[in-house]
Structure formats: C-alpha cells, structure tokens
Batch of 2 targets.
Target 1
Amino acid sequence: MAKFSLKVNGKTQEVDVDPNTPMLWVLRDHLKLVGTKYGCGIAQCGSCTVHLGDTAVRSCQLTVSSVGEQPITTIEGLSENGDHPVQKAWLEVDVPQCGYCQAGQIMTASALLKRTASPSDAEIESAMNGNICRCGTYLRIKKAVRLAAESANA
Amino acid sequence: MTHIKTKIGRRSFIRTSALAGGGMIIGFNWLASCKMTPEEVDRLPKEWFDINGFLKIGDNGLVTIMSPNPEIGQNVKTAMPMIVAEELDVAWKDVVVEQAPLNLAVFERQLAGGSQSIRHGWEGLRMAGATARKMLRQAAAKAWGVPEEEITTADGVLYHKASNKSAGYGEMASAAAGVDLPDKVPTKIEAPEEVALKDIKDFKIIGTDQKNVDGPQIVTGKPLFGLDIHEEGMLTAMIIHPPAFGMKFKAMDAGSVKSMPGIKDVFPVEVYPEGVEKQWSDSSGVPQVVAIVGESTWQCMQAKKALKVEWEEDSTIEDSAYHDKALTELLDSRTEEAARKDGDVEKAFAKAAKVVESTYSAPFLAHNTMEPMNFYAHITSDKAKLKGPVQTPEFLEKTLVSVLDMPLENIDVMMTRMGGGFGRRLYGHFGVEAAVISKKMKAPIKLVYTREDDMTQGTYRPAYKIRYKAGLDENGQLIAWHVKGVGTNDDLVFENRFPAGAVDNYLAEKQSLESNVTTGAWRAPRSNFIAGAEQSFMDEVAEAAGKDPIEFRLQLFERAIKDPVGDAEKNDYDPERYAGVLKLVREKSGWTNGGSNEGRGVSAYYCHNSYVAQVLDLVMEDDVPKVGKVWCAVDCGIVINPLSARNQVEGGIVDGIGHATFSQMTFKDGIPEQDNFDTYRLIRNSEAPKEIETFFVDNGIDPTGLGEPALPPIVGALANAMYKATGQRYYQQPFVSKRPVIG
C-alpha cells in the first residue's frame, strides 16, 4: 500500500492503495466516483474512459502510481451542471438506451472535440471505434458528436 | 370514449398503502439524488398524496408516476408512465418518474422479457391514470357541489365551465386520496368500478417524442446501476465458476491467498444445495462456486488470479466440433412426429418443376451486457435485502425462499436500472450467489463478475441449424415447404408462423440436442436465427421462381389472407399486417423490380406480436459488408414514444448486423474460447449502418413490443444484400469470421 495525492475533477484527494491499482478502481471503490464504468478491464470497450490532462485514456490500464501530477477528469467533473456541449447534445439527440457505456462515449467524444473542433465523419468513427455500445446507439452517438461540434463552434 | 370495467387489476387501484412513503422505493430518482438543483428543490411539493399504486400527486400539482417494470434499456421507464399520464390528463413536464419496487399485490408482471411490458401493461396503465382522473373529478364535484359529469380536465387542471371554477390537481389531491387534512372536510372517494378511457384521437402525450427520463443522470454519471451500489460496511465479493462446462468443484487450497491485502475470506459455497426448490430462472446457475470476499474490487481480482482451485469432470466434455457434428446428425435424422403437417410434401416435391434446398447454421452467442452480472445482498438471520440488475425479481425472491429458508415477506429484492439485458438477466443465479455469500460472511456484500466470468458463465444463445426445402411448380408457384430445425437445448422452429398457412403442402419438424453448455433467451429467442435463415431462403426460392422477392412474398400473404391452408386458427400471424409492412418498405425504399441495385436486400418477419420489414443497401469492402442505408417499416400498433421507439429499432438493426457478421462463442475441451472483447468480436461504431430510416404503420391497434422485433429480419436483409453484391449465398454465421479485432 502507498499514499497517492490525486487531482481529480479539480480537487486534490488522498488515497492509500496498492500502487498497481488501476485508476478505474481507485475512482469507483475509493473515491466513490462510479460514473466511470467497468466493462472489460483490458482496454477493449472504452466504458472506463477518463481524461488524463486533455487526453482520453482507459482508466482500467492507468495505474494509480503512473498518474503523478496530471489532472484527471471523470464524467462527474466534465461540467459543473451537466451542461457540457457533448452532454447537452447527448440529451438533445436522446442517445442512451441502457446508458451504461455512455459516460465512456461522452468522455471519448469530448476529448476528440477538444483536439479536433470540427471532426469529419471518418474522424468521429475512428475516435469512437474503441467504445462499444452493446445496445447499438452508434448512429445517435455520431449524430450527437456532430451536433456538439456545431454548437460549440457556433 | 371507451368505458371499461376496472376489474383487471382493480386491487391495484384500491390498495394504496403499500407504496405510501418513499422507503420502499429505490433512491435513484432525482428527488432522492444527493445533489438537487435549486429548480428541482423549488418543484418539490410539501406533501404527496397517494392516489393509487401507480401514482401520487403533490399539493403543488407535481405528479410522481411509478414505472412498474425493470428497465434494461428498452425505455419502458419513460413509456409506461407516459401511458398513465395520458389518461390522467396531466402535462408531461409536471411528471416525475420513479422505479416501482417489486410488489405483485399492486403491479402485474414485473418482468422484462419477450417485448411484453407495453403490450401487457397497456390496459392497466391506462386504467391507473383514468381511475385517478375520475377520483379527482369526483373530489372537485363534491367540493364545488356540481355534477361530476360537468367537470372537465386538461393538463392537470379541473374545470367547471358553467360556474367558471377551476383547480389544479394538487388542490384536489388530498380529497381524492381521502386524506383528512385539518383545514378540510374529510371526503370519501372510492376507486370507481368503471372508468372512461380517452379516444385515441385525443391523445396528447402518447405518440409524441419524449426523452429518456434518466437521460440527465446517465450523461452526468449518477449511480444508477447495480454495479454502482455502495452501502455502509459493504464488502466486495467475486466468484470462480467451473472453467469448463461438464466440470464441477473438487478442492481448493486457499493457503496464502486468504492473507493477501484486503482479503476477508475465500471459500467454496453451495449456491443451490440439494433439495432446494429452483425456479426456471435458475436454469443456468451452477451448484457450487468459489467465493472471494474482500475490501475492494481490485484486491479481490488479485486474489482470484492467485487462487488455485481443482475441478473434476462431472459430465461429458463437449467442444464446437462435437456440437457441429451432433447438430448435423440430428438434422439428418428422421423426426418421429411432425410439429405441423399440411397436405403431403413428399408427393409435392416429387411432382415439382424445381426443388430448392439449403441449410443454415449459427453459433452460440454470449449476451455481453456492458454491465457485467452483479448483485448486492445483505442477509441477516431473519431478513434478506437484495438490490441489483435482474429482469425477473419475482422469481429470484421465490428461489431465495427455499435457498435461505426464509418466508417470502422477509425477502426484498429491489430493481436497479440495468446496463443491458438482452435476456441475460432473466437468469438471476447471480442474485442467489450474492445471497449465499452474504449469509456466510454475515455482512452486506456486492457480488461483481469480471468480464471473463460474465462471458464464460454460459446462458448462451443456443447453436442452431435449420434446413429448408421448397418445391415450385412450372409457373413458379410455391407448392411445398419443408423446414427442419435443431438447436442445443432448444428445438427452434415456430411451426405455425409464416409460411405455414400460405403453402398447400407444409411440413415442420424440430428437435433439440441435449448439451451441458447452458443456454437461455437471447434478444428475440429463436427468431434471431430463424428470420435470417428463412428470409435468405425465401430470396433463393423467389429467384428460382423468377420472381421479384417482394412480389413473391406478397403473393404468399395473399394466399394466407384469401384461402389459408390448414387450420387458420393455428396460424400465428396476421398476413394483412405482414404484407402491410412489406408494401410500406417497398414504397419508402423506392424498391424496383428484383431490388435491382447491386447490394440491396429485403426481409420481413413477425415476432413478439409486431411486424417488421426492412430493405438494406451495402457495398462489400475486403469481404466485409459496409451497410449504407436501412429502411425499416414497423407495425407495432400504437407507438407510445416515437423518439425512443426509433432508438429501439436502430439498436435492433445494429445488434442484428453485428452479431450475424462478427460474433461467435466456440468451445475447446468444454472451455469457452472467447472470454473478453479482444477475442469476442462485437460491432463497432464505424461498422454500423450510415443511416436508418424507420416508418411506423399508423393503425390505432393496441401497442405491442419493440425491444426485439427489429433485430431478426435484418439478418435476412443483410444476407440477401450480400448475395446481390457478391453472387454468393451466406449460410453460416458469423458471415465474416476472420478479421482482426479493433479496440
């Protein structure tokens, strides 16, 4: 066990865990931030996506000891009032079915838009391909990413 | 206006006490969320009045409507309350929705399965709203001293036009609920014997686009799911189940694992001891598992990896080669008794000008809900409290009566929102596992399956094979149809569905192959395979007949309408509605003779009481289909919420294309060869169709289900379009099996 000081959603938090613990479980079990989801544990499904700095990463592969000073943003910290352009677009398009994968989808999409303000359809597909939606809401996901890009650029 | 006796479920509208207060209701609604916005706080009433089991009205007119059925992504949590709100005649913006607890004294059929929630719920939900509206009108009539018939309602307001009086529902709620308030004269309003239901043309909420009521919580990551549960003192539990089908627990040496960081205990545990009374929902649970209990999920995962468990053979060890061979042998064998027989197929084949025969197969599939199986349980000496994602809470409670030896009234199973179901959570053995582990630990625990546990546990879509043989006369008329279907633990064929009733000589046979690989209902059971096979074959037969595939099908429906073959009562479909969706999709897709575009296919299918026809356009790139547009015509009667209904259709189409194209579960030495998404291939964003356009038949018929019916036919449309593009027929699923996994 070791103590780590983590910057999560703008707050500094202390945890005392095994250094190999993935951030996914630090967030879910220790910081009670359960919006970040467990789906596969091997970086194949994207449910656990968070931002490390401005980059979308799979928190199931990110050990707590490797985070250091870098700030982490989870779905709970993406916006103060749930009004990030991507969240608003998700509601406008009514994307979710079961909803389980959607936090990961939103975190991937918001990192994409930070990097590429007006992505092409091919760029959207390429960025979103790592996030599985078992309910098959892919068309609405694409539509919502396009809408978020338009509204953020408007 | 339809008057309807409230006999069905009448007790639901009288017994209100069971739901009084919020204690029994799972606290994941916005009213109970930890951080309410100032607007939400402003909207809260000072007092709630229970009108009936389905709804309560606040003194400020805010209405809470219970959604009785489990929510697995089919969006009944929005649709079911919409039906209540419609008949209550309240504005949808003034409604908040709560997940109802399991309470069969009030609600009926609290189960998610078979796309039946809306179909079964329809009448009761309408009555719940209409009954409450009538009681509010009675209360206003008494208060104002006017006849009840003269009172009208609109958007949550009661009016008496003649005397120019009006009052919000909130003002009459206490009187309607029969609650004595200090400043009001007590009134006694009885639940009515008969209520009037709205005319369909007067619907204001049903048929409008309404967004998912949990949407704001989903996009902000609120704890909605079973896996998100945290309770005071709760430990995490994991299990190890037998690694292969046909094996059972032999021995283990916990040794140093028990002293690993955070680990509380490691032990084998009997889930279903001998003599317990199991329900159908326990069919895929194993008798004994190894439990690992600890402080956190990661610690349990490490202990699980380190633990050495010995297993022993319990029955035959099967592999995929065996399944394939045994199913083929069964398909080739003679069946003693036909499932249905009209005319004489042998004679007809003998005189047929052309005979077409094809065999289709499909592998086992895992459900792979994105939220792995999990359950919270807190078992004490006299009480069992459980909470989690299960499609059949009623049956889980019944099993627990026997497993825990506890009376039913001491057992409480609560439902969470579910991260996907697709049939998997009909089989609630994981709830039982959580209970026995909690009992042993004498502590509240949350059982968590890893993805690998989830994918290798079983409860799969069965492996199937089906053979069709059709005979055509010299004019290209279908004169004989023979179908034989086989599956593992499932005999596959629906003998009374199309084309039964449309062909003079018809023979249906079915058989089941016993296997220890456990199987269960997987989104649109049987239909998920039959539709693709049958509709591919239909295309092949139409081509042999030299006819346009849509025209060929329509001629068969015409026959079934005008002069049905055999006992028409037995035919389990309505040929007019079937033909209706096919005509609609033909028109909308601009289908021309033979679907002349390269890479265009059609399919139509009926299941779960709904009719769906689809046209699909694709191109092939490196032997992989790239689907452009899908046109989809649906007849599911009245559509409650078109926005969400389209979502179900889109999801069903993506799901169907994905599994038929890429997915399979195979076995070696009884061990599942795929255990995570690196080896089990699911459809990805870039592989979904570029566009899906959905058209609903507007016929005013009572609504039927939509969670499943859009999936099965798309497999046929896909296979037929692939044939058009490549000149090859696709008989074996997955259609594309060799392709690197992306992720």
Target 2
Amino acid sequence: MATFADTTFTPPERIRNFCIIAHIDHGKSTLADRMLQLTGVVEERAMRAQYLDRMDIERERGITIKAQNVRLPWVVDDEEIVLHMIDTPGHVDFTYEVSRALEACEGAILLVDAAQGIEAQTLANLYLALENNLAIIPVLNKIDLPAADPEKYSRELAHIIGCEPEDVLRVSAKTGEGVRELLDAVVRQVPPPVGEDNAPARAMIFDSVYDTYRGVVTYIRVVDGRITPRERIRMMSTGAVHELLEVGIISPEPKPSAGLGVGEVGYLITGVKDVRQSKVGDTVTSERKGATEPLAGYREPRPMVYSGLYPLDGSDYPDLREALDKLRLNDAALTYEPETSAALGFGFRCGFLGLLHLEITRDRLEREFGLELISTAPNVVYRVVTDDGTETTVTNPSDWVDGKIMEVYEPIVKTTVICPSEFIGTVMELCQARRGQLGGMDYLSEDRVELRYTMPLAEIIFDFFDSLKSRTRGYASLDYEEAGEQTANLVKVDILLQGEPVDAFSAIVHRDAAYTYGTRMATKLRELIPRQQFEVPIQAAIGSRVIARETIRAMRKDVLAKCYGGDITRKRKLLEKQKEGKKRMKMVGRVEVPQEAFVAALSTDETGDKPKGKK
Amino acid sequence: MASTLPPGDPAPADGTLPPEAVAGLGSRPFGVYVHVPFCATRCGYCDFNTYTAGELGTSASPQSWLEALRRELDLAARVLGSAPPASTVFVGGGTPSLLGADGLASVLDAVRGAFGLTSAAEVTTEANPESTSPEFFAEILRAGYTRVSLGAQSVAPHVLRILDRKHTPGRPVAAAGEARAAGFEHLNLDLIYGTPGERPDDLQASLDAVLDAGVDHVSAYALIIEEGTAIERRIRRGELPSTDDDVLAERYEQVDSVLSTSGFRWYEVSNWAASVAARCQHNLNYWRGGDWWGAGPGAHSHVGGVRWWNVKHPARYAATLAEGRSPAAAREILSEEDRRVERVLLELRLAEGLPLGVLDESGVAEAKVAVSDGLLSQSAFDAGRAVLTDEGRLLADGIVRRLLP
Ligand SMILES: Nc1nc2c(ncn2[C@@H]2O[C@H](COP(=O)(O)OP(=O)(O)OP(=O)(O)O)[C@@H](O)[C@H]2O)c(=O)[nH]1
Ligand SMILES: C[S@@+](CC[C@H](N)C(=O)[O-])C[C@H]1O[C@@H](n2cnc3c(N)ncnc32)[C@H](O)[C@@H]1O
Ligand code: SF4
Ligand SMILES: [Mg+2]
C-alpha cells in the first residue's frame, strides 16, 4: 500500500526512530505486528503472526534472532509522522543485535509482560538503552492475560526507571488494545533525530545482510547529509569506494527510494558480495566531498563459546566449509578455523555468542545444507601463561599445554538473576556451587529480587540456566555480560576409549569439579556407546592419572538365528539397513560411537547440587 | 516365508526369465520348494505366510491351492525349458501335514511331473507333530518322501503354552519315533530357545528329549520377536518379559555344547547334523547360492542371479494363475556386488565358511582382525577361508558387516 512514508527526505522533526526491547518472549514481535497493521503497511489478508520473524528457524522456534527495521506512516493531530521501528531479539546470545539497533534510535519501548514482570534481559536491555541516552517508554504487555498484574508490575517498572506507575502504558499486543495510544506516545516522547542536512553525508551501518538474489544489503541510519543512488559512496574504515545500485526503505518489504536524508533509516545495495566489505559499525559517506570524521563505531561481538564442528561423513568436509562461508555472510558473530581431531578427522573450531547461537548454527547447517554434524563439548577461551613466560589463547582443549602452566585466566561475567524472593537461598546455593561471587542484591518489589554475581563464564554457559529454571519452578531469569578474566585452578580432563584419548571429549574444568566431570562422562558414554564385539574400557584422566573408569562389556550375540527359508532378499535388505546404521556411527579407533554420544556431551542433566564444571 | 515381501522390480506377467539367468541351469543343483499356506491355528510368535481356515473362509482351500500349484509348476517347466530334474524338494509351511498323506503325495507327483527327480533326491516335508500318525509316515515314505522335519520347539509345558503350541510335550518325540519306525532315516526336530520364562533346565529337558528321539538333525532357533505378532504385543504391553541377548547367547552355547557332546556337529549357525549325509541338502543349496523354484503363495525363488517372490494371499495366488499369469509379485536381478554380498552373508554362516577370495582387500584385512579377536579361525584363515569360531558364530552378523564395505 502506497503512503506518504514512501517518500523520503522527510524533515527530521517529522521523524521518530525507536526500537522495541524486552526480555525474551515478552511480545515484541507481536506488538510489531499490531503496528504494521494499525499503520496499514501490511494488509489484513497478508498478515501473519510475528510477521518480521522472516527466517524459517525464527518461525520454527518462535523467537527473534535478527533485528528488523520498518518504516511506518503515522498521523497525529493531522501531522504526518514517519516512524522507524526496530524489533529486536530478546535472547541474551543476541544482545549485540539490540546494541546495534539502539544506535539507530532516539527512543525505546521497554516492553514487560504484565504477568511476569521485570526479567533479567529487561534490565540488561534497559541499561543498554540508558547508556545510549535513549528516551524510554515503559509499557506493560499482555494485559489481556488473566494472570496479568498491571498494578504490581507498573510499580516495579516505575521503581526501576524512576517514573510514576501511572506513566507506564498498558497494551495487549494480542488484541491491539492500547497500541494506538502507544504510537501517539512514541511521537510525543521520543525526540526527533538531529543532524546537519547540509553537511557531508554520514550514515551508520547498523546491519549488513547477505541475500542470494540481491547480494549484500546494508542497513543504515543517516546522521548528516544525504545518501542518493546517483552518487558513489565510500566506507570510511577502509576507504573502499562502491557504486550504489539501489537505496531504499523497508515498509515492510524493500522499496527503492530517491535517497535517504537526515535521521532516516533504510538500506543500500552496492553489489559487494561479502558482508565484511560493508561492515556493521562503519560510517558511509559520499565519495566526493565526503566527511572526514567517522561516527563512533561499535564493538564487534566476540565469540564467548567455542566448539568443534565435524561432518559425520569425512567426505562432507568441503561442503561444511562452503556452508560456513555462506552462513558467515549473514552472521558477523560466527567465527571458524579449520582444525583436525584425531578422533573426528577434519572439521572447524567455531566461535559462538552462546549455546543458543551454537545450537541454531548447527541446526541451520544440518537443515539448510543437508549436513550431518558432530559438535564437540563447548568451551570458553582461556589465556594460558607457561613457565617460560609465553602466553597462548586456548580455544580448544587439545591445545592445553599440560605441565608447564604457570597461570591460567578464564573469562568471567557479571550475572543478573531475577527471581521471587522465596528462591533466594536456592539461587545463592547454586551460584556458590558454580564459583560465583555475590555482588549485590536488590528488591524489585516486596517479593521479587535481583541478585548480582560475578561468575566464571564456563560455569554458566552450559547448564546453569536449566539448573536455575528447574530450581525456581521456571520463575528465575538470567542475564550476563562480559566482565574480564580471573586466574583459576583448571585442569584438562581427557576421556580414553581402549586406552586412547578421544580429543573430542576432552574438557577443561575446575580442579574441584574434575572428578565429577570424569565420572559423569564415563558413565554417560558407557550408556551411550553400544556394546561392541570386544570389551571397551572407558577412562577419565588428568594427565596420566586415571580418575574414573567404566567398561562396556563385549556384545555376546549378534546373529539372527531363524530360517527365513529362501527369502535372501530380506536378509540382504536387513544387512543394508544395519550398514546404514553403522554409517551413522563415528569410528573412534575401532569403536563405533553413535553421533548422540557427542551430542550428549552438550546435553544437560540435572543430577544434583555438586559442582559440575562444564559439559 | 516371512510375512512381508521385500520391495522389488516388476516381474513379467508370463513369468519369463532373462536368458542369462536360465543359461547355467543344470550346471548347478536345482531344488524345488513348495509352500503350504495353511495352519490349524496361528502360533503367537509366527509371522510366516500362513492362514487358518477361519481367516480364509471360502476364498481359498487346500483343493484350490493344489490346483493353482499344479498350474504354477506347469508354468515353471515352460519358463525353465530344459530344467534339470530336482535334486531336492522341500515342502514347507505353514503346516504341510494338514494336507494329509494323500495331499502330500499329490504335491510330490506334481513336482515329479514338472521336473522329474534325481535318483538320490532329498525330499523333505515339514510336519506338525499333532497332525501326524504312523500311517501318515508310512504313506508319505511310500509316496517318495525321504526326510521329515518336525516342529517340536520345546518339551516344557509352560514354554509350549507361551508359544501357543497345541501338541502335548511328549508328542514330537513320539512322532519322531513313529517316523523312524515307518522307515525314515532322516529326521529333524526344530527347537526354539529363549522363550520368555524358559529356564536353562527347560532347555536341557528339550535337548534331552531331542537326543532321545533318535533324530539325525536338529535346528535350534532363538525366538525372534517379530513385529505384528501376538507375542510382540504381549511383550510390548509388559505381559511377558523379553529375553536378553546375553541370555540368548548362553542358551545357544548350551544347545551347542549338548549337541556337540552327543555326536552332532554344526554345519550352519542354527543347524546341527549327526553326519554329513544328515545335512539338509535343500537348505544348503539356498546358502550356497544355488537355483530353486519356490512354488506356492509368497514363495521365493532364485535362478541364476534373479530372485523373485510370489503374491502372498492364497486367493490372489490362485486367481492370478487361473488367469494364466505368473504369480510373481516382484523380482530383482542381482548385480555382481549384490551376489558377492549375499555370498558373504550366507556362506559365512556355514561351517565350511567362505573363501577369502570373495572378500575385497579391506574385507580380508578385517577378517585378519577378526581372527585376532578370536572370531574367525586362524587355521582356516591360513588355508584361505573365513570360518567362524564358536565365539564368532554368536556374532556372525556383526562380522559380516565388518567384512563388507
Ligand atoms: N495473551 C497474550 N499473548 C501475547 C501477547 N503478546 C505476545 N503474546 C504471545 O507471547 C509469545 C511471544 O511473543 P513474541 O512476539 O514472539 O515475543 P518476542 O518478545 O518477540 O520474543 P523474542 O523475539 O524471542 O524475544 C507468543 O506466543 C505471543 O503470541 C499479548 O498481548 N497477549
Ligand atoms: C515356520 S515353521 C513351519 C513348520 C511348522 N508349521 C512348525 O511350526 O513346526 C518352521 C520353524 O520356524 C521356526 N520359527 C517360526 N517362527 C519363529 C520365530 N519367531 N522365532 C524363531 N523361530 C521361529 C520354528 O522353529 C518352526 O518350527
Ligand atoms: S504351526 Fe508353524 S507355520 Fe503354523 S503358525 Fe505355528 S509356527 Fe507358524
Ligand atoms: Mg521477537
């Protein structure tokens, strides 16, 4: 549908740039849906739930992974206003998507589920928005729910933000109630963008996406001057000059425009094929009479978790490389380097923002590229100083230099847990077991608290969240951010099959947790590896010291003892099926190890309160 | 004849075979199998292609079956042209003894009419102990049968009950005695071990009885829980315990040790014979890749690298033949590699084993490893053959997977 917002170079005073931020699942994308409808950019019959969650994996999992921006027309008091709205993801792994979105906005809707109240990512995202000096509009969502308690949570929100409970708006993204008023409030409360129309063009790249048909699509927010399709542009970090093939806006499909002016958000296409040539955080200017001072950039997202990815079938290695190359085009946070494992052959050591990122990447590689993969136990990055003073960064337990280690530094994070006050004891116990240091505690309301801990990243990335959820009946939420490093007493635990270490199962754990880790892995593997035609001893060891052992007894019977008469075909088909099954096993030495055994290293199981190290 | 048919290529309606397949006929032993798809009742563990009178109603009867069988044997003779006389005949089921001695005599006459028999032909029929008698044995001996295979399964009453067997514990041994008295030299008893609730002493009693019966052949099968059978449902619902593979292995060792110390020798994983002459030539022909025509509903055939199988239901079988068409449901023409795989699959289970020449390079290397694992015989390997050791017999399928790519 054509609207006035399709015409660009809107005067800044008639522009409002805002994003929707919230804890995961509090209804951002659903609220965005209502905005798309109310402003008329999506017709009723084209509407579908979470319209902006465009990726298959987002729709399947019901979560947002990529932030999405949309230009919307809105009329208040007969004045035509252009809104640039950005829907952001709520999961902690994708916080960097939120920080980028914030750079393109002057205001943020802080959305809170009226049946849940403030959660850990509510706070994390609020603080990010405040750091960026954004105007905050506090909103309670899901007021249609019977369990909604808007009175209580208005007070909570007001307390945190420092406003009056009456200032907290109430909407239902489901029914649309209150959304019109919310849009009006955005126009009133979010300041219009400021910038120099006459100055040399400066636009901030806040996202860069590879599209099979169009090449790299770069999302920008213009700060000064104008970007027009007739001009060539320069990337200020590299000096590279590009032809502009197209400039446009998203509403909610891409629409080419005459250009973009001060305060406007849109996209440009240059024909480059690699998102790295159009880097997030870079400043775009015009080639002629361009700007000399770039805008302040972003810190690039750094991988927090590493895992080895190996094709189940070694001959798929080139396909895996190609698939990773393609995924990286859209995922600046994904890093990978070739590595070889004695057990698994050729693969890649990949860096991820967190376990969800790992899981999603693996999922996409398997489904979109038809690969079958084994991923090794994830680990964080360690800085290791040996006694000769050399320093190495260890992203793979195999690189652990035993013996000569003087000092090991592990990454730590500031952790926020929000939970009902009845669980304070339980949560504290869990955090202490995971080597946490209490940083502080605040009451959000009479019965809900915020606990702050500093913890080793390795202790929380794997199963901490699951433990937390199961101990608090699902009521606790968690957020964490990097907070430097600390020295730690860590050891590498190896797992040996038939006396041979299997590098894929090695893990670096705190010395106090080594025994538990070793025992658990050995037991788990005994259950997961089927009996072979020979006995298979499993051992866990620190260096040459064995700390746990198990044995997989030899299989006694593997023969079909029945006459099938002359139906030899059936026998052969059965053999073929068994051989297929065998192909799904990874040969580690002579031992057939099922794929699940590797996956299980990742899995979580709640076994109790003992310190666990990581999985 | 297991109850599900494999998928395959369409088989020609006139039953013709590729000329290459028929070309070598006569240079190899030729057998005839006849499938009798009738049982008085269905045993709870059995998924063979067989039907009770109640299930068939008026759609098929032993009479209509016999008529159709004659048609198929005619067709077989036409298709094979200069087929050699059969050196083995095996009438299996189902329950062939339900046809009575007359019926079995007619079946053999039909086979004779179509192909003729070699002078020393082995002619076996399966029989359920409860549907036999001294007269029955005398008559079928006269008709030309040389061997009888009786389904004993067990002598433990509680095991027979779980297996839904209708005969009394003593009947199989008595039947074997009657057959011997009638003049049968070659007799087999089938045993099933590993039935839920079977104890080692139950199996011991069955083995003792089998030895008492004076037969010269024993087949002993671990009970296989087939999908879709009554026993499978009972186990799934938890009404019966399932038998652990380790227990099955122990039972097998028990069977093998009792039979070995009583003059029997294994010649196939599940088959023991008191002498070379007592081995079942018909089955050996299957395992050695020979030619045979399988007649009757759901029967499988193999001639010169072509395998085919008939439609399963007796009514459809008869109707197809009545229309002058081949009852074949589908067939497959084996590739060189298929034939090699089958040789490994089948011959490794035999005491004579498999020539190492059938294996590829990595197969031979794997065989060597299996020798060092104690699963294949060292001396046989040195002589150029892969032969299972006692331990290896219990792991034969796994070894086959190792020997093949
Ligand atoms: N009853 C009710 N349910 C809502 C409302 N808003 C959202 N939901 C439901 O809440 C769930 C999460 O909604 P989303 O819009 O995907 O949440 P989100 O904040 O975008 O989630 P992430 O992007 O993954 O962080 C969905 O099942 C929605 O249908 C509301 O106002 N009322
Ligand atoms: C299919 S029967 C036909 C012969 C005859 N009707 C009888 O029952 O004796 C041949 C033999 O196969 C064996 N058999 C059938 N079903 C079996 C199963 N599920 N597991 C193991 N052996 C089985 C029995 O030992 C049986 O004697
Ligand atoms: S009598 Fe034999 S063929 Fe018939 S159902 Fe029982 S086991 Fe199967
Ligand atoms: Mg969303």
